[in-house]
Amino acid sequence: MSFNVEWRGANIIVKFSGLVSYQEINEADGIIYGNKHFDQMQYQVFDFSGIDGFNVNELEMKMIGTLDKASSHWNNSVKVAVITDDPKIVELTRVYEGVMDDSDWETKIFKSMEDALKWCT
């Protein structure tokens, strides 16, 4: 597992390291959606700022978006903050946003944890 999870009440910060794969993002999502506090969750922060690489393709990002979109039926007001300055992750986050477009979840990209948390709270 190349990520750490920090719970802040019902909210979560997931900090990735090393080479990030679809399986690891999917595993992090499983932790989120399997948690009893998901219904009260207001934000999720995915921190990719210290990674060595991002091994996720467009189809896999669409699959992540599809899972999140289905989960939005149980909690329709979640902010998703992505921390990165990697152009590939920015591009794939835009793909994710396209899948989530007709849900009430908001997604925004940040370069720092401080800015991400300011937006989330």
TrEMBL record:
It comes from Plebeiibacterium marinum. The lineage of its organism: Bacteria, Pseudomonadati, Bacteroidota, Bacteroidia, Marinilabiliales. This is Uncharacterized protein. It comes from the Bacteria.
